[in-house]
Design brief:
The chain is α+β, with helices and mostly antiparallel strands. It contains 2 helices and 3 strands, in the order H-E-H-E-E.
Length: 73
């Protein structure tokens, strides 16, 4: 998921994430996971702000550290 720089900080990303979560709830999903790389600090703050927490799972993504985030629905 990405939002153009001009739209960042204007709730567009939050609304997109909420829509995805609502769809997953409707499909009876109880847990969401997503991944992000270390350079994307702004994305990590965004996910944390929206209730996601680091799961502790860390892998390699083409030489970059990839962190898994999780949220229960």
């Amino acid at each position: 998921m990405a939002v153009r720089a001009v739209w960042q900080g204007k709730t567009v990303g939050g609304r997109m994430l909420l829509a995805a979560e609502e769809e997953l709830r409707a499909r009876r999903c109880r847990r969401i996971t997503l991944d992000t790389t270390e350079p994307l600090e702004r994305a990590m703050r965004f996910y944390e702000k929206h209730g996601y927490r680091r799961s502790g799972r860390v892998t390699d993504f083409f030489g970059m550290t990839l962190h898994e985030w999780v949220k229960s629905l």
